[in-house]
Write a structure and sequence with these properties.
Layout: E1 12-16, H1 44-56, E2 61-65, H2 75-83, E3 90-95, H3 100-110, E4 114-118, H4 124-131, H5 136-148, E5 152-159, H6 166-174, E6 180-185, H7 193-199, H8 203-212, E7 216-217, E8 228-231, E9 238-242, E10 255-258, E11 263-265, E12 274-275, H9 286-297
Parallel strand pairs: 1-2, 1-10, 2-3, 3-4, 4-5, 5-6, 6-9
Antiparallel strand pairs: 7-8, 8-9, 10-11, 11-12
Helix pairs in contact: 1-2, 1-9, 2-3, 3-5
Bound molecules: S-adenosylmethionine and iron/sulfur cluster.
């Protein structure tokens, strides 16, 4: 079992399969993708090897992320590799929703159970100005297609000052839409300290509004993500709040990250990744990768240092997928 010095257990792996993205979200890649397109991202055999090692150490859930994972042509094969790994019970994917409607059936057939689609605003013009793409109607059609396929759908919305109707419009939508909406507090990254200062608002204010309106807390599962979730009898959808700046956020940490170039990130905001790619090679026994992961986990810090403005080596979240 993957367990750190503080007794935290790690049931959940976030696997980035590319850092390339076609969107230009204001809080992430406002100038678009600037990396080298010839980067060599993890291959399917390396991914299989990695998933086998993590599953042998107790990982039950894998989230495939990026950059934009939908840009990888072999994404269905990656999903299928995850779904076929003994021990992995949930295969999730985070996407910006680009071409979702035409792709979701194939992803579902490959074994996808859970989909997170990022939609920061239900206003098409606002969505366009945040992401650089006038694609909200298309993405909402993709989301309907995912629900029709029977995939469990969550929507990620970054909570931002300056979007006054964000909560009200999503609440309206959740009355009849059976998805979990997760508001994520803007996190400070190396590239965007000014954006953070101008736009960060605490999820605690939303939590107080929800509780006052009769929303109730949902019990957390052991492979659950970082969100505090709420439900309300009058709404088909649920709301989750991801509040990395709240006290004790790190004490329930149950997830590890692998970057698209094979680095283990013990925290989203650690100083850098630890190279484990040499142990991901198919000719190396998976037990060697397991031993390496177990040894490196001893270095996991008790908490991030975001409160002191220390964002670690993370320049933006497209690098390791948020
Ligand atoms: N491209 C995919 C997408 O946008 O869903 C997957 C990768 S993206 C980095 C994963 C999540 O991180 C998205 O929901 C995005 O909104 C969120 N994110 C990116 N930068 C962020 C920041 N600075 N603060 C909070 N959330 C952020
Ligand atoms: Fe791309 Fe996702 Fe970053 Fe937006 S949040 S720029 S879609 S990686």
């Amino acid at each position: 079992m993957l367990e750190d010095a503080m007794g935290r257990r790690f049931y959940y792996l976030r696997l980035s399969v590319t850092d390339v993205c076609n969107f230009r979200c204001t809080y992430c890649l406002p100038d678009g993708y600037q990396g080298k397109p010839d980067q060599s991202f993890l291959t399917l055999p390396e991914i299989r090897q990695t998933l086998t090692a993590f599953a042998a150490l107790g990982t039950e859930k894998v989230r495939i992320t990026g950059g934009e994972p939908g840009l990888r042509r072999d994404l269905p094969e990656i999903i299928s590799a995850a779904a076929q790994t003994p021990g992995i019970r949930t295969v999730a994917l985070t996407t910006n929703g680009y071409r979702l409607a035409e792709r979701i059936a194939r992803w579902r057939q490959a074994g996808l159970n859970q989909l997170n689609v990022s939609i920061d605003s239900l206003d098409p013009a606002e969505f366009h100005s945040i992401t650089g793409h006038n694609r909200l109607p298309e993405i909402l059609r993709g989301l309907e297609a995912a629900l029709a396929e029977g995939v469990s759908v969550k929507v990620n919305a970054v909570l931002m000052r300056g979007l006054p109707d964000q909560l009200a419009s999503f609440l309206d939508w959740l009355k009849t839409t059976p998805v979990t909406l997760r508001f994520i507090e803007v996190m400070e990254t190396g590239d965007h300290p000014a954006f953070f200062r101008e736009h960060h608002i605490s999820g605690q204010t939303v939590k107080q509004q929800l509780l006052a309106a009769g929303w109730q807390a949902v019990q957390r599962r052991r492979d659950a993500g970082p969100a505090e979730e709420f439900w309300h009898p009058d709404y088909q959808g649920r709301i989750g709040l991801i509040m990395p700046y709240s006290q004790d956020f790190c004490s329930s940490c149950n997830r590890l990250r692998i970057s698209s170039t094979g680095k283990l990130h013990l925290c989203l905001f650690s100083d850098g990744g630890l190279d484990v790619r040499p142990w991901m090679q198919p000719h190396v026994a998976t037990t060697e990768l397991q031993d390496r992961l177990t040894a490196l986990l001893r270095h996991k810090a008790p908490s991030h240092l975001l409160h002191d403005g220390q964002t670690g080596g993370t320049q933006n979240l497209s690098i390791i997928g948020g």
